[in-house]
Amino acid sequence: MSGHSKWATIKRKKEATDSKRSNMYAKLLRAVEVAAREGGGSIEGNMTLASAVEKAKGFSVPSDNIDRAIKRGVGADADTAHYQELVYEGYAPGGIALLIETLTDNRNRTGQEVKHAFSRNNGNLGEQGSVAWMFTRKGIIVVEKAVAPDEDRLLEVALEAGAGDVLDSESSWDIVTEPGVFKQVQRALEDAGVHVYSSDLTMMPQTSIPVEGGEARQVLKLIEALEDLDDVQNVYANFDIPEEVMASL
User: 15 falls in which pLDDT band (50, 70, 90)?
Assistant: First the structure.
């Protein structure tokens, strides 16, 4: 898990500053819209919406844009597009399992784009169910060690609030929770003065496969190609690449 969590952190810092920012805005707002459509427009009563809104705010998406996305989701906007959630599964070089979540208004287009990304980057698109069994829905709260309390204090606050585990991820701590207590644990950390770098509902692999060198480069190249697709919301993987190797790639 730690490898993919580190990649998400590095990617988050990159996307906040580079030319992909506007594309990321569109993806985040689409996620907000669909969450509102499926679970209602109340942030307090819709955990998925609350997570999507928080993630959008974390990337400095304007509040007005978020509010409009929620209204589109609950049907208050006549121009609402109908998005469908599709999940693709496959393998990157080295046997790394990939689970790809998409939101699309054209499943044929999305399917072709995902297929081409795999074929161009030495991956293999799998059948439905081929890798999904390797992943479990979890909440992940990232706390950077540079601003974190000591380990014992962090463990005490997190575990008492209901977290399942606290993982050492080199420069950060990854606090793992069940989805139902995700926000509860985050609030407890913040109330205790712990600075939360990021928090998200994610798909956590049961086991990770270490990769380095050229193979690591190939894995990240395929993941980036998938994440660059407009309809792709999230790419989950079971690789573990050292943080310094990822940063250099």
Answer: low
Cα gap 163→196, rounded to integer Å:
14
CATH fold, domain 135-205, is: Alpha-Beta Plaits (3.30.70)
Task: Determine the CATH number of domain 84-133+207-241.
Answer: 3.30.70.980
Beta bridge partners of 190: none
pLDDT digits (tens, 9 = 90+) for 99-126: 999 999 899 999 999 999 999 999 999 9
> pLDDT tens, 20-70?
666 788 888 888 888 888 888 888 888 888 888 888 887 788 888 888 888
Say what the pTM is.
0.81
CATH 1.10.10.200 intervals, the chain: 2-73
- Topology (CATH) of 2-73: Arc Repressor Mutant, subunit A (1.10.10)
